[in-house]
Write a structure and sequence with these properties.
The protein is mainly β.
Amino acid sequence: QVQLVESGGGLVQAGGSLRLSCAASGRTFRIYALGWFRQAPGKEREFVAAVTWSGGSTLYPDSVKGRFTISRDNAKNTVYLQMSSLKPEDTAVYYCAADPVPPIGRRWHDYDRWGQGTQVTVSS
């Protein structure tokens, strides 16, 4: 199986930046893409970004395009989410997830392995 561990969450002021990391281990050959989702209290899980494991193709929703950048370091089996110009509405638990088959998924049920999540809080 694939194991995913997120890190890098925390408290930041509006306008600030934060970088999240997702370390993958286990059967990483099963990964087609790694994605980030977020979930705020009382809201549905929202797609944030994804990158293919080998090809480097990326996908973003309009809500974060231009502010968030996803990248991967295959040597470290790690995917990063660089978040800039953060807003209070970006506050959520951020989850890393593995998508086993193409194309890159935007829906949470396209992903079959999930990390435990990391809290990001943006203060106004």
